[in-house]
Each structure stands twice: as structure tokens, then as C-alpha cells.
Design brief:
By secondary structure, the protein is mainly alpha-helical. Helix content is about 75%, strand content about 0%.
């Protein structure tokens, strides 16, 4: 326990310099990219006097390094600044937009992980049989199909033709109760389809290796039921590479499902980031980059810690 605690503390301490490096990169990328945020705010009809006045008000007339150190002091204090377009604190906006993204990401990940693992187990158990070939084909289809195309197909079938679900939009649970879930079904299924294909292939590959081990043959020779052998012995010992993929995919989803949120007009972090890029809303873009980096670091830590649960032989230094 002491070694594990020290490992967690060391990883959390490394979080600070990594975030600072990401913050520095985010600042210079966003401030050096083409496009004038002041012109976007005021429009092309604005006079030079109006542009200069707003530049001075926002501090854009100062040298880049001066702006950088001023912004760095804000970040150290935990202040992400204010949105140039929404006229609100960036931290407050980001927290509000995290709610729909988190709901869609969790729902999509649960569906994708469940379907992917079950499909991978089925393919491994029925190796070189018809079910195995069908599972491989389905997983390849899930990996290959573009998310935007799948989203449009689902929207056309279930919203336009069958009219079972809304085409787009979002209502929070506080506003609509359980009816709010009808807005996340299609986005979540789109995300689940993307996850299931990769997880199924990884599960199948890991399970095939595990099922060839001596202890599995010993369990079979003892007459243990097939379900116990597969789910209790083989699956747990096959989960290390699968957990890595699941953690990476979940980090991608929590960081903002940009394309899916844009197609279904879900006001999440991905939709916020795309609009911020189009509007040259620099503080929001910087905050989204830092947010994605933090998500990746935290989930990577959780994935590393889960290894010890799945394999007690793993030790942390």
C-alpha cells in the first residue's frame, strides 16, 4: 500500500509540470494561428478606431511575451479568463458544457464496452467458425465506418423516416427528466459503434492467447463449466490490453466528441471547442486544450492503477 500511495503521489505531482507545458503550447498555438478575434467580434464593417479600442481593452495591443506572462499568472491562480464571445468566465462555461458531454460519453462507452467485450469473447470461443467470421466482419465495419456518416444514417432512419427520436438538440435531466435520454440515444449509439469494433478485436486477440495457456487446459481437464473458465479465468487475465484501449477511448470521448456533438447539435465541450475555433475565442480554445490534457493524464493514471487489480504480480515503483 505504501508503494502504491507513493506511486500515486508521484504521478499527481507530475501532473503540474505536464499541464504547464500543455498550457504554454496552447497559448502560443492559439495566439499565432491566423485570424483576428477582434475582427470576428466586431465584424468586417468595424472601423480601425473601433478595432484599436477593443484590442487595447482586451490587451491584444501588448507584446506577445507580456501577454503570455500575464496569462500564465492567471492560470496559476486557477483563472482561465473570460470568453471573448460569450462574455462569461471560461471555467463556468466549461463546467456547464461538460454535463452533456459526460452523459453521452458514459452512455456510449458503456454500450460500446459491453458490446465489444461480448463480441470479442464470442469470436474467441467460436474461433475459426462462422460466428468468429461474422464477429470479425462486424468489428472491421465498426472500426472503418466514419462517425459522421454513421450519425447521418442513424439520424435519417430513426429521426426522419421512423420519427422515433428527435433529429438534434438537447435537454438536460433537470429540464425534461427521463425524456432527456431520447436526445442522447443516437449520439451514444454512434459513439458505441465506434468503440465496440476496436474493443472486440482487442478482446478476441487477448482471449485467444489466454485460452491457449496451460492453466486453462487444466481447468478444462478438471471438468469446470465452460462459462466459468471463460468469464472467471480467461477474461480477467485477458483484460490488460483491453483496459488500455477502453481508457484511451473514454479519454477521447470525455475530451469532447466534436463531430458527433456538432452533427446532433449537442452543447458539449466538443461543440464549444469547434465554435470557439470558428470565432477565434482564444481563452475558450486554450481552456479546451488544457481540459483534454487533464482528462488524458487522469484516465491514464486510473488505467495504470487498474493493472494491479487485474494482475496482482504487478508492482509500482
Amino acid at each position: 500500500m505504501k508503494r502504491l500511495r507513493n506511486y500515486i503521489i508521484k504521478r499527481l505531482l507530475l501532473l503540474v509540470p505536464i499541464i504547464m507545458i500543455v498550457a504554454v503550447i496552447a497559448f502560443f498555438i492559439t495566439n499565432l494561428m491566423p485570424g483576428d478575434p477582434v475582427r470576428v467580434i466586431l465584424g468586417n464593417m468595424a472601423t480601425e478606431q473601433e478595432v484599436n479600442r477593443l484590442n487595447q481593452s482586451l490587451g491584444f495591443d501588448q507584446p506577445l511575451l507580456v501577454r503570455f506572462f500575464s496569462w500564465l499568472q492567471q492560470i496559476i491562480r486557477g483563472d482561465l479568463g473570460d470568453s471573448l464571445y460569450l462574455n462569461a468566465p471560461v471555467a463556468q462555461i466549461l463546467i456547464q458544457r461538460m454535463k452533456p458531454t459526460f452523459l453521452i460519453a458514459v452512455t456510449g462507452e458503456i454500450l460500446g464496452v459491453t458490446a465489444g467485450i461480448l463480441l470479442g469473447i464470442l469470436a474467441a470461443v467460436k474461433h475459426r467458425k462462422l460466428l468468429d467470421q461474422l464477429a470479425i466482419t462486424a468489428s472491421l465495419f465498426g472500426i472503418s465506418i466514419p462517425s459522421f456518416w454513421l450519425a447521418l444514417i442513424l439520424m435519417f432512419l430513426f429521426s426522419v423516416k421512423l420519427r422515433w427520436l428527435p433529429v438534434s438538440g438537447y435537454e438536460s435531466f433537470a429540464e425534461a427528466g427521463l425524456a432527456s435520454f431520447k436526445y442522447i440515444i443516437l449520439p451514444a449509439v454512434t459513439l458505441a459503434f465506434m468503440q465496440a469494433g476496436l474493443i472486440a478485436r482487442m478482446t478476441r486477440s487477448a482471449m485467444l492467447d489466454t485460452l491457449k495457456q496451460d492453466y486453462i487446459r487444466t481447468a478444462k481437464s478438471k471438468g469446470l463449466p465452460g462459462q466459468i473458465i471463460v468469464f472467471k479465468h480467461a477474461l480477467k487475465n485477458s483484460m490488460l490490453p483491453v483496459i488500455t484501449v477502453i481508457g484511451h477511448n473514454f479519454a477521447v470521448l470525455l475530451g469532447g466528441t466534436w463531430i458527433v456533438e456538432t452533427i446532433f447539435v449537442i452543447p458539449g465541450t466538443g461543440f464549444l471547442a469547434i465554435n470557439a475555433i470558428m470565432r477565434r475565442d482564444i481563452p475558450v480554445i486554450q481552456a479546451c486544450i488544457i481540459f483534454v490534457a487533464v482528462i488524458y493524464i487522469i484516465l491514464n493514471l486510473l488505467v495504470d492503477l487498474s493493472y494491479a487489480f487485474l494482475n496482482p504480480k504487478i508492482r509500482y515503483n
